[in-house]
Amino acid sequence: MPRLKPADPARLGLAPHLRAILDQPFPRFSDAEMLRRRQALVDVMRKHDVDQLLVCGEQRAGTGISWLTGWVTTSEQIIVFDGREQPKMFVEWVNHAPLAKQIAWQCEVEWSEHRSVEKVVAELKRRGARRVGIMGVFNFGKYRKLATAFPDVVDLNPAYSRMRLTKSEEEIDWLRIGAAFSDASIAALSEGLCDGLNERDLGDIAERAYAPFGGVTMLHYFGVTSMAAPDCYIPRQHPMNRIVRDGDCVFTEITGSFWDYGGQVLRTFAVGAEPPALYRDLHDTAEATYDAVTGVMRPGCTMDEIVDAASVIEARGFTICDDLVHGFGGGYFQPILGSRSRPAGPLPDIVLAENMTMVVQPNVIDRARTAGVQVGELVRITATGFESLHRAPRGFLRAG
Question: Could you give the CA distance from residue 164 to residue 219 in angstroms, rounded to a whole number?
């Protein structure tokens, strides 16, 4: 087997200060940033009259763990936090504890011995807990055990989601790295996508673009269909063993992540042929919608303004399937919006603010639900408008 050559991070096009973050043995936020986060939790706890907080994660879900400590959730982690004593994190698997102790910022780490709730309850009692809040993943069986000892438990997940909508400058830097990872996948697909591959091969191409730099996969969804006889209008969450052929449309949604900070980029390719009229119209509408929506984004922008801007979709006789806009960065957050013809429920009571990060992703489809395209990417709200965090070329891309 030929020896692999180290991948060159220069091809990611990162600014020097971002490259310096990537080059750390384990990337870390500054002490000031971590203290800011802990003070934000203290403020939420005071607002809700909570004196102890459990930040929970399980089976790789629960971004509050990494936001608070820098340790990304593996199996089960529960942190006891009060803003006075050092946080204490209980880790389910004993072999995860040594590295958690190395990475977790100013946090005591203890193996839970598969008795996490019992240990958490004992720690809460030692701290004199009166009213306990929960952020993150905490299953019903654990909740029942906790509520036996502390009946007045407060769900602070909505508060956590609100808190994570607006990002610090350091968080935005990490998102830029995740965006560069995701863009690398689009570049790799532009070079490697061709007749004869299957959807599993596409995932392999996407992941190999960022894995050498420490990137991890949050998702890569692909839709593959003939443009002459389409039967797929939204990218699939699980790949088929379908072969890509000339004349196909391949459209994709990719998030390569830098720890818990991922970009999200959505693009559409025509393989080995020019797109027919229907696909040109769908794609032109999707691009026009992206421009219209981002054109109104600014601090103070309302959700009605965003949905109104997307009315170009219905005006051209199309609709959508996927969400039009969603909050992103450390989770999939509100505001989650659809369009007039495919709403996503009541409009949330949110106005945009500087340094919110959102994905704008028009998945324009025909009314028969046979054909669709997808465009868009992660953007940041600036003082005067918006900024894309991505560099992948826009347009109806060609491959093969």
Answer: 20
Predicted confidence (pLDDT) per residue in 201-233, tens digit: 999 999 999 999 999 999 999 999 999 999 999
CB 139 within 8 A of CB 117: no
Residue in the structure block whose two tokens are 């005006």: 315
- What's the number of domains the chain is made of? 2
Residue count (the chain): 400
Cα distances from 40 to residues 68, 168, 237, 267, in angstroms, run 10, 12, 35, 36
Q: What is the domain extent for residue 218? A: 169-399
The tokens for 397 are 């891309």
Token reading at 195: 């007749």
Residue with tokens 């830029």: 176
Sequence-ordered list of residues with C-beta below 8 angstroms from that of 8, at least 6 positions apart, any chain: none
Sign of CA dihedral 307, 308, 312, 316: positive
What sign has the CA pseudo-torsion 121, 127, 130, 136? Answer: negative
Contacts of 62 by beta carbon, 8 Å cutoff, 6+ apart: 55, 56, 73, 77, 136, 137
Question: According to the model, what pLDDT value does residue 251 have?
Answer: 98
pTM summary value: 0.95
Percent of the residues in the chain that have a pLDDT greater than 90, as a whole number? 94
Q: Which residues pair with 332 in a beta bridge?
A: 328
Domain-embedded: residue 209: yes
CATH number of the domain to which 242 belongs: 3.90.230.10
CB of 372 within 8 A of CB of 284?
A: no
Distance CA(288)–CA(283), nearest Å, equals 8
Q: What is the pLDDT of residues 284-326, one digit of tens each?
A: 999 999 999 999 999 999 999 999 999 999 999 999 999 999 9
Whether residue 20 lies inside any domain: the answer is no
The residue behind tokens 């990494």 is 66
